[in-house]
Structures are given as C-alpha cells and as structure tokens.
Amino acid sequence: MAKNDVQDPLLQQLVDSPHHSSWKNALTKRKHHRSKTVLKKTWHPEQNYEASLQKPKSIFESKLDYKLVLLVLLAYVGIGALCFFLVRYQIKGDKTNGIIDAIYLCIVTMTTVGYGDLVPDSTMAKFLACIFVFIGMGLVGFLLSKAADNIVENQEILLVKAMHMREKSSPGEILREVETNRAKYKFYTVLVSLLMLIFAGTIFLYEKEGLDLFDAFYCVCATITTLGYGDKSFSTSGGRIFAAFWILISTICLAQFFYSLAELYTERRRKSLVNWVLTRKLTSSDLEAADLDNDDAVSAAEFVVYKLKEMGKISQEDITMVMDSFKVLDVDQSGTLTKDDLLHPRK
C-alpha cells in the first residue's frame, strides 16, 4: 500500500453515502447511552485470555474427522493396490513381491513421484493409473493436506513449550505466544518435521538400500519434490514398505513447508503494514475522514473503524453490510442493541 493512498480520506465514501446518517445517529445515541451507563463488570485480561482465544464457530469451519480421513485413505490404497495387483502381469519393471509392489505403485502414483521402476504396460493398466493419479491428487490436495495442517497446528503449542522449557510460563502465556506468532511457529514445526523426514529417508536408503550417502540424499530430494528421475529408487521389499509410508508423509510435509513459508512472509508483511499504520503521524485530513458524525471529535469506535480500513482489514462494502445488519436488529432505533431488540425482532 502506498503512503499517498493511505493519507487520503479513506472513509470519504462512507461519509458521502446514504448510510452516513445511520452512522451519525447510531454513534450519537450510543455516546448518550454510554454517559448514563454504569460499568458493572471488570475485565481481567490475564484471567480471561484463554477464553478470549475461543472464537465463535463459523459456518466455514468444521472439525476434521481423522477417522474419516484414515478410512478414505485406506479405502483408496486398498482399492488401488487390489487393482494393480490384479494387473501385476501387465506392469513391467523391477519387481519384488506382488502385494508390496501393488501398494508401492499405488502410493507412487498417488503422490505423482513416478520413479519409473514400475510402469503400466497395457491399456488396462495405463487406464487404472490415469484414474488413480487424479483421485490421488485430489485426496492429497483436499483431504490429507488439511489433516496435516491441523496436526501441525496442534503441535505448535508443544514446540513453544519446548522452546521455553527453562522459563516458568503459564498456559495463558503459552497460548498468547502461539496466537501472536502462529505463522512463525507453524513454519518452525513444519521445518523440524521435514528435516527429520529427510534424515530418516537418507539413513534408510544408505543402510537398507545400499546407496552411498550422497546418492541417498539425492534420492530423497528427488522423491519429496516428486521429481522422480528413476535412476535411484526403493528396490527391495522392505524398502518399498518403508516408502509406502515415508513418501506419502514427506511429500505432504514439503508442500506444507512451502505453504507455511509463504504464510510467514505474508504475515510479516501484514505486521509491518499494521505497525506503520499505527505509528505514523495523523494529519488533519485523517481526523476529518475518521469523524463519521461530524462532531469535530473522533471517538474510539470511529478511530478503530478508520484504522481497520486503512490496514485493509475491512472495506466499504463490509461496513455497509454490518450497518444494514445493525439497523435490522435495532428494532427501537435507539442506536444500541438490547435484549428487548432480540426478544422482539422486526418483522
């Protein structure tokens, strides 16, 4: 966002719109109402922070059923392995055990690694490969990646606790730290997991598959990036059993790594913008733009709305929709919402 754009009156459209009178009446009545209201409850940030982190459920948020994810994955691998096993004589390449090879080929197809050590050699086998690669990509992209993302988020608190083991931090402080730097700790969690997977794959290929250390690392990199040259791959039965689990986990983890890296970069840019918006010197044009009720004074509510719009967190359309919703709920048109308004909704 350019500085010149920010310095322009950002709420001018609101002031000039038909909704401005509603804003003005609501704000004026609310100020009058506050002047006659006695604060009955005291807010304790320290005691209520954990409760404040509990956000209302959104229609777009649903709890992921890990059992369902596991069942779908097992169904895909089971059906895919069965199909590839039935056409095993129509598949050419370096074979070990029929069942193990079928599961291995199913996972390699699903993750689009495609070593080339096992390839379809008939119309039927190629048709099955076409079907399972698209279904597998959809499963990885929409279901398994979401499950991995949820697992990573659940591990963030454990990572923060491990980083602050020597410090006496309360659960509320741990939650506050996670919430404040969620993108950073998510990135660290995924990075640690990815490094562990790379190390495990390299050591396994070195010890069990007989590759030298650099070739093992090279094979790992070609695998998790789904490059799959095919010059190095898992060639033993034990190696392919390990690969069936390791390839699936590591490829998803790498995708999560790049996603969290982009998220971290975006979050830092956002925080930089927020810091600039909150610390820059206000001008008279800012006050005029933020003064929605034209009373030559900017209230806290007006200031918050102005700054949120300046940060790009809300838009003119958002403000208009919220005000329309408020007008519908405000049955007595007092400029405030009470229990009576909820008990006697406008028909």
UniProtKB/TrEMBL annotation:
<protein>
    <recommendedName>
        <fullName>EF-hand domain-containing protein</fullName>
    </recommendedName>
</protein>
<dbReference type="GO" id="GO:0005886">
    <property type="term" value="C:plasma membrane"/>
</dbReference>
<keyword id="KW-0812">Transmembrane</keyword>
<dbReference type="InterPro" id="IPR013099">
    <property type="entry name" value="K_chnl_dom"/>
</dbReference>
<feature type="domain" description="EF-hand">
    <location>
        <begin position="317"/>
        <end position="347"/>
    </location>
</feature>
<dbReference type="GO" id="GO:0030322">
    <property type="term" value="P:stabilization of membrane potential"/>
</dbReference>
<keyword id="KW-0813">Transport</keyword>
<keyword id="KW-0472">Membrane</keyword>
<dbReference type="InterPro" id="IPR011992">
    <property type="entry name" value="EF-hand-dom_pair"/>
</dbReference>
<keyword id="KW-1133">Transmembrane helix</keyword>
<feature type="transmembrane region" description="Helical">
    <location>
        <begin position="185"/>
        <end position="206"/>
    </location>
</feature>
<feature type="transmembrane region" description="Helical">
    <location>
        <begin position="124"/>
        <end position="144"/>
    </location>
</feature>
<dbReference type="GO" id="GO:0005509">
    <property type="term" value="F:calcium ion binding"/>
</dbReference>
<dbReference type="GO" id="GO:0022841">
    <property type="term" value="F:potassium ion leak channel activity"/>
</dbReference>
<feature type="transmembrane region" description="Helical">
    <location>
        <begin position="241"/>
        <end position="262"/>
    </location>
</feature>
<feature type="transmembrane region" description="Helical">
    <location>
        <begin position="99"/>
        <end position="118"/>
    </location>
</feature>
<keyword id="KW-0106">Calcium</keyword>
<dbReference type="InterPro" id="IPR002048">
    <property type="entry name" value="EF_hand_dom"/>
</dbReference>
<feature type="transmembrane region" description="Helical">
    <location>
        <begin position="68"/>
        <end position="87"/>
    </location>
</feature>
<dbReference type="GO" id="GO:0015271">
    <property type="term" value="F:outward rectifier potassium channel activity"/>
</dbReference>
<dbReference type="InterPro" id="IPR018247">
    <property type="entry name" value="EF_Hand_1_Ca_BS"/>
</dbReference>
<comment type="similarity">
    <text>Belongs to the two pore domain potassium channel (TC 1.A.1.7) family.</text>
</comment>
<dbReference type="InterPro" id="IPR003280">
    <property type="entry name" value="2pore_dom_K_chnl"/>
</dbReference>
<dbReference type="GO" id="GO:0009705">
    <property type="term" value="C:plant-type vacuole membrane"/>
</dbReference>
<dbReference type="Pfam" id="PF07885">
    <property type="entry name" value="Ion_trans_2"/>
</dbReference>
<keyword id="KW-0406">Ion transport</keyword>
<keyword id="KW-0407">Ion channel</keyword>
